[in-house]
Design goal:
This protein has about 600 residues and is mainly beta. The protein is built from five helices and 37 strands. A hairpin with a 2-residue loop joins strand 17 and strand 18.
Length: about 600
């Protein structure tokens, strides 16, 4: 597993920023040096060794073939195989929503720097850099930068995204009584929005292979969206009782405290050149320049109890107070929430049970908000049994209730929606690693964006049932074979608009070259989803909405690649959609937004050790 997965790229970074970043890394590399040992990061309660040997997944950097965008790297995305967080973010989030960075806790005996760079068609650039080192045995910090920059194949389709993050943590400090965790994240996702092609048939009926796509007419000549997210968290705990013996058995009681600040904002801009695109202009102006800002300040105080021995039991609970403000146009409102939380973790031999409970105390609605999240893992030999349950009762986001803009507005009084999610899974580790999962989702009284690009709520249930099978050979020295198949049943009110069949297969032949000093693999990947009635994209709100019964899909997306490794340096060369034109030109991710034509990507990755 690579030590870092993230997505970012930039236009041309300023020289001062590069000097500052290089100086910071240079200083940090000189702090200390330990003997050579494996490198780890901590994820899901386990230590994951950083991959410094294999070729696994290096060609996938920045790509997820079941997450589609507007045909341009870094543009707004939509998950065709959604999990809980995707169901919420696709249809129930605030308009300024931008998912934050996923932090890993590293544990390294030498400082590491992991650098990746990918360049592709339409001036696509994707650069990532992560540095981590331990200041002492129990204190680590990591800094990272992700940049995405792409001109796009069509008019007004450029993207420019930046993700900067910092994570530092310490455990067992001050006589094994004090722990802390500090994270900071800044994301700026900017995209020029062209509103899609004026006429999809100009692309479908293309008779000039690889014609200049920039000549095709688009709906918006000058529209722009920028999402920003600032997030900072400082959490710490102090053991007021620490009754552990030399074998680390006994119990502890700790006082927990956490502060968090986050601000999400969205800017949408267009000009008088786009007036013919809109159904209505509500403000006496031919210029749209709208800003939404959502800000939250949280504080948490609680207690944590841990009992360690033949089995481990960890419980923590407390009160979280948050002050949330929403500002947009002539709207300015706030919510103050007081929430009770209780988390538990039980480990006994090969059994792990984890639960998270949250309950909103000062809810103005008749039925209070709550979240219940339960996960169970049980290992039996080569098998892992997994069970999950998630139940929630949620208020709609503030900006789904009120919005005032130049081209669209609404004033709603929605009731709460509920999410019910259950998962059963079976994993097998052997010659063929395999995973079988069944996911059941119910969304009661779902909210969605309708034909007029405003939010609606249904008095009923939307249902998604997904069965999944994944296979991977793990012991072959010559072949790397993987496959996954997902069947999704949509019941009730179909507000999800998802394909029923998703599949992906990959095969690679591995060999050595240059006197066995270079590991190489040549392979192919094919991804397919069936034709289905998809959502459309609205540049004004930045949301995917249900419009006409437009269908996309039923096209195999193929990649052919060569990848290699020399010591800790890896590289790949990939050609995507090589069959372009052989099966026609009816390949779209969304109505008005074609998928990429035949194109190349070249990437390099280097893990530096000091």
């Amino acid at each position: 597993m690579e030590p870092f997965q993230c997505i970012l790229v930039v236009q041309k970074p300023k020289l001062d920023h590069l000097r500052f970043l290089s100086s910071l890394i240079g200083i940090s590399l000189c702090v200390f040096t330990y003997a050579q040992k494996p490198f780890y990061f901590i994820h899901d309660h386990g230590r994951v060794q950083i991959d410094t040997l294999t070729l696994d997944g290096i060609e996938d950097f920045g790509m997820n073939r079941f997450v589609v965008n507007l045909g341009n790297h870094g543009s707004p995305q939509f998950n065709l195989k959604p999990e809980i967080e995707d169901l919420i973010s696709n249809d129930y989030s605030s308009l300024s929503f931008l998912r934050g960075h996923q932090f890993f806790r590293y544990h390294v005996y030498k400082p590491i720097v992991d650098a990746k760079y990918v360049i592709g068609r339409a001036q696509e650039q994707h650069f990532s850099l992560v540095h981590s080192q331990n200041v002492s045995k129990n204190v680590n910090y990591s800094i990272g930068l992700d940049k995405i920059n792409s001109k796009g194949l069509y008019q007004n389709q450029a993207t420019n995204n930046t993700d900067i993050y910092l994570n530092s943590y310490g455990t067992g400090l001050f006589k094994n009584r004090y722990d802390f965790d500090l994270t900071f994240n800044y994301i700026n996702a900017a995209a020029v929005l062209n509103g899609g092609l004026e006429d999809d048939s100009t692309f479908i009926n293309d008779t000039l292979d690889l014609q200049n796509r920039a000549l095709l007419d688009v709906n918006l000549q000058n529209a722009y969206q920028e999402l920003r997210r600032w997030n900072g968290v400082f959490g710490h705990s102090y053991k007021i009782l620490n009754q552990l013996d030399s074998a680390q058995k006994g119990y502890t009681i700790a006082l927990l405290n956490r502060f968090e600040f986050q601000q999400n904002s969205r800017l949408f801009y267009d000009s008088i050149l786009n007036t013919s695109f809109y159904d209505r202009i509500l403000v006496d102006s031919l210029l749209t320049n709208e800003t939404i800002r959502y800000q939250s300040t949280d504080g948490y105080l609680g207690l944590k109890f841990g009992s360690y021995g033949n089995s481990d039991l960890i419980l923590d609970g407390g009160i979280q107070s948050s002050y949330n403000t929403y500002t947009q146009s002539n709207l300015d409102t706030f919510r103050w929430d007081i929430e009770g939380k209780l988390n538990g973790l039980f480990i006994w031999q090969d059994l792990i049970i984890q639960t998270k409970l949250a309950y909103l105390i000062n809810d103005a609605y008749a039925n209070h908000d709550y979240n219940v999240d339960l996960e169970v893992w049980k290992s039996i030999g080569k098998f892992d049994l997994i069970g999950k349950a998630y139940l929630s009762n949620e208020r709609p986001q503030i900006d789904l209730l009120k919005y005032s803009g130049n081209n669209v507005s609404w004033n709603n009084s929605f009731q709460k929606y509920q999410i019910r999610h259950y998962e059963l899974g079976l994993n097998y580790s052997g010659k063929w690693n395999s995973a079988l999962k069944v996911n059941y989702f119910d969304v009661i009284d779902p909210i969605y964006f309708g034909y007029d690009k405003t939010p609606y709520q249904i008095d009923g249930v939307s249902q998604l049932i997904r069965s999944s099978l994944e296979l991977e050979n793990s012991q072959s020295e010559k072949w790397d074979l993987k496959g996954e198949f997902h069947y999704q049943y949509l019941g009730g009110y179909n507000v999800f608009r998802l394909p029923s069949i998703l599949s992906a297969v990959s095969a690679a032949f591995k060999f050595k070259a240059f006197k066995h000093k270079m590991n190489l693999a040549i392979g192919t990947k094919i991804t397919y989803f069936n034709k289905y009635s998809s959502k459309s994209f609205d540049p004004v709100s930045g949301q995917y909405f249900i419009a006409a019964d437009d269908k996309v899909g039923n096209y195999p997306y193929a990649d052919i690649y060569l990848k290699g490794r020399v010591q800790r340096a890896t590289f790949f060369i990939m050609m995507s959609n090589p069959q372009q034109g052989l099966l026609g030109y009816n390949y779209f991710y969304f109505p008005g937004y074609p998928a990429n034509d035949r194109f190349y990507r070249i990437g390099v990755s280097w893990l530096f050790l000091n």
